Structure formats: structure tokens, C-alpha cells
Amino acid sequence: MSNRTLVRNAVGLVVLMAAISACLASCSSRAEENKKGITTVSPSTAGNTTSVYVVHDKKEAEEMKAMLQTERFRKIDAQWSQIHKAGAYEKAKDYKQAEIEYKKAIELAPEKIDETVPRAALADIYEATGQYEKAIEQLDWLIKGKPRKDVLDELLTRKQSLEKLLAEQTANQPNQT
Q: Exposed end of the chain (fewer CB within 10 Å): N or C?
């Protein structure tokens, strides 16, 4: 697995964990006290994904359903469906369509932090297609988000290598005067 994939996965996990912890915050204290049984809640808020959440009683299950049906979680669900769709195009090396789909995922982001995964993916696509300036723009956006030190170090190293590639690319272009 490449460092880029690790960075994208780390960024995605941070965003996903933040969303999950916000959702489960109200249920966690009672879950420790109330270990009667396990109920699963499988909402398909966008109709494109299936998620399973483990809760410990019927009341908790109802609260979880209500939280998952909030506007924010519907948007996140729709956004992740879009990200998976874009990822399929990227895997098939249909970079133009993947770019379009990742941009749609950015538009669906309910908050700025939810833009990190599609922006990291766009940086990968732009690098793969030699659009180094656009890749650097995406990395700058990610860097401004103040990621963990290890992720920040990787982003800065990657940005430096892209800046070198951009300089070489610019030097190799014929003068257009």
C-alpha cells in the first residue's frame, strides 16, 4: 500500500470516526450501564449503502435511528456513496469521470471537514494525470486543515515532490509567445 493510500485512509478514518463518535455520544454512557441485549439498526438513509450499528437496548436503537435520520447523516451517507462511485471510476482509470464524481462528493459535504477524503483523492488523480498545479491546490487545502503530524509530514513531502515535477513540466514546455 502506497503512502498516498495510507494518507487518504488516515484522513478518511479521522472524518469517519468523528462522525461516528458524534452519533454515538449520547448512547455510550447508557450502553455501559445497560448490557441487556444487542439490537442492530440498519438504516439505508441514502438508499445506496447499508450500515449496521450495534446498540444495547430498544430505546437506544430508537435514539440511534433518529440520529441517523438527521440531515447531517443523510448528507454524509449520500456523500460516501458518491465517494465510492468516484473510487470505482478511479480504479478503472477513468480519471475524468472520477474527478467529476469526487467534485460532486465535495458539494455534498455537510461541513468542511467532510471534504478531506474527496480532496485527497482529487490530488491523487491530478498527480496521475500530470496536473501538478491542481494536485498542489488540493494538498494546500488539506494542509490548511491542520492534520496530525505524521499526515502533515507526508503531505508536505508530497507537495515538495509535486512542486519539483511542476517546475520540470514548466521548463519542458515550449515558450508560447
A: C
